[in-house]
Amino acid sequence: MTDHSVLDLETGPSECLHQSELTRRALRLTPEDGIFRSAIAPLSLIRVSKTTPPMPCVTEPSLFVAIQGRKRMELASQAFIYDPFHYLVVSLALPVTGQVIEASPQAPYLCARLDIDLAMLGELLLEYDPGEPLNGNGERRGLYVARMSDSLIDAVLRLVRLLDTPHDIPALAPLILREIHYRVLCGELGHRLRDLAGINGQGKSIVEVIQLLKSRYAEPLRIEDLAAAVHMSPSTLHHRFKDLASMSPLQFQKQLRLHEARRLMLSEGLNAATASHRVGYNSPSQFSREYRRLFGAPPYQEIAQQREATTGNTPASLEW
Prior knowledge:
The protein is 46% helix and 18% strand. The chain is of the alpha+beta class. The strands form two sheets. It has a six-stranded antiparallel sheet with strand order 1-2-9-4-7-10. A four-stranded antiparallel sheet has the order 3-8-5-6. A hairpin with a 2-residue loop joins β5 (70-75) and β6 (78-82). The longest helix has 20 residues, at 249-268.
């Protein structure tokens, strides 16, 4: 298991001031634990006042900026830790496990979560592509941690400031959102986004396959059919998908089913048999086995544990 947190970033005076102001504003805008959607549609603020057990979720393409505290994300047994020195990018819809590992009532975990607009990234690439490949180590996984820059934290702070002047949001928020996307694209690992945001290419095809799996997760699907839908060979699709998502397309579909069944049991109170049938399982025993393998306990036990562990406004199975 790999820890991708590297605490070697020198923090300059301006960055310290930005971080301090962001913390004050986030504390004021999050009066209690929970997820707070803001008046700027892609932006949410999150507050958690204690460390948490691992909580599985399916997260959409997002930028996570930790304002205070630390959080650990796990994808296919690989760990990524982010904090005020590092931001986390999820460039694909992915089933992950999140755990707040540094938080207290006196210093809660605070995070700004921003929905990533792949279309906006594509426009930026068309207009401002530097024309040379960005440096990278060849890894293409759709989740990564990168070092925070002063320019990115400054843009995030300016976006949060707009919440105090709602009349400025329509005119200024789109400009700052565009700047944030640009800063992430030009960041140290921005090369991970280029293929996904491009108009053509295999990365774009993987995004299309994920959308297909999300819309038809309860149906029987074959990799041959998925590959044909995006004009790829089954072997190419399998390898490219695994490079980005750390799992095969059919493993991805299975996890989508299990996460949706878990959501149905947590949010709608369905029993395991009904939830498993709703997401496409014909065998309750198979569902129970696979659920236990993914979440660490049988459905009834794991759901009870999550309800007991989850307090306040913090959901156990949504993106946070």
